[in-house]
């Protein structure tokens, strides 16, 4: 059942934690180019109709997807929408079936770098920064105003995409504990290990760089390790209140964000 959703103020989403997971355009009246976003939320808005059963009437805390459409006169103002939908595929199908505009919907390919997303993990109170970059080699290492952090790298790719030189740039930016997930995770861990002591890459580190690889564990098991078990070593004179999650696809970005938001262990 599709229910009405509240219009957003200019430049805002349903809640502060909502995340745009897919972007596209559509044509209004066949000529006016407008924008649309598919948004992931943890708030499933109910119908509010007391005649509906509770599971339809009431709001729920669960994964939900909404499609937001921009104004035809102000493309930064997303003032109409549809949803909730149970998953991304249903939201996409809903947009493409929208009367009058569905056939004109065109989606971005998802390869663009995404703006950093910041939130707090309720289970550990650690500050999480999620970065999506289609090409790790060209992504700018995250600097958190001098703070050291745990770096969690996730990729479905098996081919080589990291080097000791790239790893050293992340270390110099603040990564002091590195957890890698995916088929290339052992290679990523090796690159960071080399980066920590090869003399031609920089001065020796004044602390022990910790690295782990997780080629066989699930993404969520590996995220749990990074958030709960990755702690500062004895010779690191710094707290590790921050975790940077680096991914190379919108699917991994969404999966990591969903887990971080829902995990309260």
Automatic annotation (TrEMBL):
Organism: Piscinibacter terrae
Official protein name in the record: DUF7684 domain-containing protein
InterPro entries listed in its UniProt record: DUF7684
Residue span(s) of domain DUF7684: 143-248
Domain of life: Bacteria
Family annotation (Pfam families): DUF7684 (PF24733)
